[in-house]
Write a structure and sequence with these properties.
about 725 residues, alpha+beta, 27 helices, 22 strands, binds arginine, binds aspartic acid
Length: about 725
């Protein structure tokens, strides 16, 4: 694998004079990469990046709100992340009178910063290898089931011991698919306040149209601040809390970066699968993703049709559209990327070489039949994967069914159910009702329902069809007839009826509720899943995981044989990682070349007051026309907005700092180019690029656009 990539990479570098490097490295082990990083241009040491003995950059990087990355940029705990990462909080604080999503928000003093109940920022304090302790008692003879039990028990014990001696959060994570375990100590900050956000037509400029796409012009940032108790400790929200004094904050560079410059990204990548056998990648990319892409494409077409007709529907379905569309677009990129790269063939070649290598020595007996066994196991797994995919991409996309699911508990109430419990169920159902109807457009749901049910019927074999599908086929003239009846008879299409029902609810009404056709349909498909699909999916999934652990161990040995001086990196698992690569454009296809940065000119070119994603405010246009960029202009005189580089990133890296050779902040990572989204399965340095918003554009918006220059005063700016 590595060899293939390296040779490809040499070819690629001849063309683009660019060295994009694969790998998401554990900061604690970065020593192994130091020489390479410095050869690529880094001016600092890895001790500057990660140290437990003195302050280092790791003290300024956090897991933001459980899903993104954020970085500290002042000695008063000021934090930057993406707009799409802070989005929920911007929305949370928005009202019709104070619509921060539309107009942006800027606290003009610390008193105006807004608390965010339930938010978190997690900072790694230290980590240690606990593999031996976790695997204590596991021998060559231990069965997989026993092993799982031993590992679970050991982890519990080690964690409890560590927690007893520490104020920090302790987690133990598996790396290299169960071949290594690390214990991580975290400080968990819970008082994090919202400080600022640009209007959505800057922070989300290009919207879903431009999502995953280069060239990009999104000012994807928002600003928060960490607060701690007066004695400096992480604490729950309190008025008495004070801004956090970090051990380190990132200096910000106004110098920009040129093609070929060294960069690195420090953050929390969520999940990758770089070490799968060919059969698994093929299943994912050529069997599962095409189904999801096809079905989501059809649903999105229906959304679009109604969204274009009615501005209210446009807003109502914006978030649903973004959710479905993010995966839809990404997977299209994965499929195309893997095909263009001949990814399956390359994986197959590796599998063959691996098996040949296993044949060379008797000690490698455990690896001999792995590839064949994987093929058998994945073949057995496939119908279950399909069943799960069809269920989730068809029936569970019918909104009225998943809404009805909120009433399942009430439908099971009896006269013996305590009133307290009933009241709680009613309260939950009421909350779900108001959320649901705010963004519900029934004609969309009816059209989606008819389409997805037909697809479900057409594409799932008899053994994997919930009874509902057979009923539709046997008892109705066609799917439409069933859907018409469903929507005519269910109570769940009317907010008024649902609320009335809840207000008057008594246990004697539970039976009637259980007969509602939408709830019945939901129960039917879910019961089928639970009884016929779930257990087997878990069982096969565990078998695959056990086999993957052995395959991973084999690949590590194989790699050590072929390439002794470079380590293998572990798949992403939501732990802190460093990845590095150089700034540079790429050639997405024949005759097309992409430059490595975009400018404000591009925003003006895309501007279209009639297209929601491309609206530009007068204020931004004025600044553009006056070329009033101050010290944030590039040396070429223009305002740079975004740039791409060859850093190996994935979901969760959003908001990560992208740093230059001196460790100064150049921008915030927020996306990848969709030609390269296959990087979660196979990394191809010629087309895989991460997209970042230029820090100078961020500061320009904060300072010149929003007039919040007092925030800039807190930062350490390197001109
Ligand atoms: N594609 C990016 C990611 O996976 C950004 C998503 C948010 N932006 C958007 N336009 N939907 O998270
Ligand atoms: N947009 C992703 C995120 O939100 C980053 C990526 O997948 O490249 O984490």
């Amino acid at each position: 694998m590595k060899k293939i990539i390296l040779s490809f990479f040499i070819v690629a570098s001849l063309f683009f004079n660019l060295r994009a490097d694969e790998g998401m490295w554990i900061p604690m082990l970065l020593q192994n990469n130091e020489q390479e990083m410095q050869e690529m241009g880094m001016n600092i040491t890895v001790e500057d990046i990660y140290s437990i003995n003195h302050s280092s950059m790791k003290d300024a990087v956090v897991l933001f709100d459980g899903g993104c990355t954020g970085e500290i940029v002042s000695d008063q705990g000021l934090l930057l992340t993406n707009h799409h990462c802070g989005f929920d909080w911007i929305q949370y604080h928005s009202t019709v009178e104070h619509d921060y999503l539309t107009h942006g928000f800027w606290a003009m003093s610390k008193e105006e910063e807004l608390p965010c109940p339930g938010i978190s920022a997690v900072m790694l304090k230290s980590m240690e290898d606990v593999t031996e302790r976790v695997l204590e008692g596991v021998t060559k003879e231990t069965s997989n089931d026993e092993r799982a039990e031993i590992v679970t028990a050991n982890i519990k014990r080690i964690k409890e011991e560590a927690e007893a001696n520490s104020d920090y959060q302790v987690i133990i994570k598996s790396f290299y698919h169960g071949n290594k375990y690390y214990m991580i100590y975290n400080e968990v900050f819970k008082d994090v306040r919202m400080v600022g956000a640009p209007p959505s037509n800057i922070g989300k400029f290009g919207g879903d149209t431009d999502n995953w796409v280069w060239p990009r012009h999104t000012g994807d940032f928002s600003v928060f601040r960490i607060y701690v108790s007066p004695d400096g400790k992480a604490a729950d929200y309190s008025e008495d809390n004070v801004p956090y004094t970090p051990n380190y904050h990132f200096p910000i560079s106004l110098k920009g970066a040129d093609e070929g410059d060294f960069t690195f990204v420090f953050g929390y990548p969520a999940r990758t699968n770089e070490y799968l056998p060919a059969v698994a990648v093929n299943q994912e990319a050529n069997i599962i993703y095409p189904i999801s892409v096809d079905l989501r494409g059809k649903i999105l077409d229906i959304y679009n049709k109604y969204q274009e007709k009615d501005p209210k529907v446009r807003i109502q379905y914006a978030s649903k559209h973004a959710g479905l569309g993010n995966g839809w677009k990404k997977w299209m990129g994965v499929i195309e990327g893997i095909n263009n790269f001949k990814g399956i063939q390359k994986k197959k070649n590796f599998d063959r070489k691996f098996t040949e290598w296993a044949l060379e020595s008797r000690q490698r007996g455990a690896y001999l039949n792995l590839i064949k066994d994987f093929e058998k196991l994945y073949a057995e797994y496939e119908p279950y994967r399909l069943a799960t995919t069809y269920l989730s991409e068809t029936a569970l996309q019918i909104e009225i069914l998943t809404f009805a699911a909120n009433f399942k508990g009430l439908s099971q109430v009896t006269k013996d159910t305590p009133q307290e419990e009933i009241d709680e169920l009613i309260a939950e159902a009421k909350a779900a009702t108001s959320v649901f109807f705010k963004d519900y457009h029934q004609p969309i749901d009816e059209e989606v329902a008819a389409m997805v049910l037909q697809e479900y019927i057409n594409n799932q074999p008899q053994d994997f069809r919930p009874e509902l599908l057979n009923t539709i086929v046997e008892k109705y003239d066609n799917v439409q007839a069933y859907v018409d009846e469903l929507f005519a008879k269910t109570m769940f299409t009317s907010q008024e009826n649902v609320n009335k029902f809840l207000d008057e609810f008594k246990p004697s009404k539970a039976k009637k509720l259980a007969k509602d056709p939408a709830l019945m349909a939901y129960n039917n498909v879910m019961d089928f899943y639970i009884n016929n699909v779930r257990a087997k999916t878990i069982e096969l999934g565990n078998q695959i995981a056990d086999m993957q652990r052995v395959f991973m161990r084999g690949q590590m040995e194989y790699h050590a044989d072929q390439n002794p001086d470079k380590m293998m990196y572990p798949d992403a698992n939501f732990t802190l990682r460093v990845t590095y690569g150089k700034i540079g454009g790429f050639k997405p296809k024949d005759a097309v070349t992409y430059k490595h940065f975009t400018t404000l000119d591009g925003i003006m070119q895309k501007e279209n007051p009639d297209i929601y994603d491309y609206v530009v405010t007068d204020r931004l246009r004025e600044l553009y026309e006056a070329k009033d960029y101050g010290r944030y202009a590039d040396k070429d005189g223009s305002m740079h907005v975004a740039f791409i580089a060859g850093n190996h990133t994935t979901g969760g890296n959003s908001g990560s700092p992208i740093l230059n050779a001196d460790g100064h902040l150049l921008g915030l990572n927020f996306d990848r180019t969709w030609e390269g989204t296959m990087s979660d399965l196979i990394y191809d340095p010629s087309i895989c690029r991460n997209i970042s918003v230029d820090i100078r554009y961020v500061l320009f918006i904060i300072d010149k656009y929003a007039g919040a220059s007092y925030l800039i005063d807190e930062m350490t700016i390197i001109e």
